Amino acid sequence: MHGPVSAAWLLVALCAATGAYCLLRMRSGVENQRRAAGGEALMGFGMAAMAVPATVFRPPEWAWPLYAAVFGAAALRALWVARRDPHHLHHVVGTAAMIYMSLVMAAAPAVTGSHHHDHTATGIPLVTGGLLLYFGGYVLLSGARLVPTHGDAQAPAAPRARWGDRPELVRACRLSMGIGMVAMLLTV
């Protein structure tokens, strides 16, 4: 990834914190939470690793195909699980985006010690544009789901859930990963 170094470090911190929270969610008493949390933790940590500025650490050439293979396996798993749980279709798109970014970074020529892909002559590739539209819409929808509605204030108080099982924290986690994906796609 390329772009301002301070923004890259913020993205690394956001994605790593999200991945860590998802790891903690894997201890949830709710089966659906545990099932989704592992894939989301992998996404968070994978995005954090990809976002490390190339001026600090430049991955070896074999790292990008390795990322693509790891996320390819995660995509197959998400596709398998999506047969029963349609929420995992979003995980399929997310892992496909990670595969795509890994392959773009593997093909990108190194310029002045960092990975840089020139979009000025060709414009934004169709796949990148499609992924930006998808994740931009996902971010807007996820953000709207976090806004309390008038009906929420009148609902009876539910028993206090463990912090890892609270739906608003899970939504915030997914929102931050969506924002991170948009930021990464903009820098590809």
SSE diagram, text form:
Elements: H1 5-25, H2 31-51, H3 63-82, H4 88-107, E1 110-111, E2 114-115, H5 126-146, H6 150-154, H7 167-187
Antiparallel strand pairs: 1-2
Helix pairs in contact: 1-2, 1-7, 2-4, 2-7, 3-4, 5-7
Query: Radius of gyration over alpha carbons?
Result: 18 Å
Order of helices and strands: HHHHEEHHH
Low-confidence stretches: 112-122
**Outline:** globular
Residue share in helix: 55-70%
The tally of helices reads 7
User: What is the end-to-end distance?
Assistant: 6 Å
Number of domains: 1
Number of strands: 2
Structural class: mainly alpha
Strand portion: under 5%
The residue-averaged pLDDT reads 83
Which strand order does the major sheet show? 1-2
Instruction: Describe the main β-sheet briefly.
Output: 2 strands, antiparallel
Description:
The chain has 188 residues and is mainly α. It has one domain (5-187). The chain is 69% helix and 2% strand. It contains 7 helices and 2 strands. It has a two-stranded antiparallel ribbon. A hairpin with a 2-residue loop joins strand 1 (110-111) and strand 2. Helix 2 (31-51) runs parallel beside helix 7 (167-187). It starts with a helix and ends with a helix.
Structural descriptors:
7 helices, globular
In short:
It is built from seven helices and two strands.
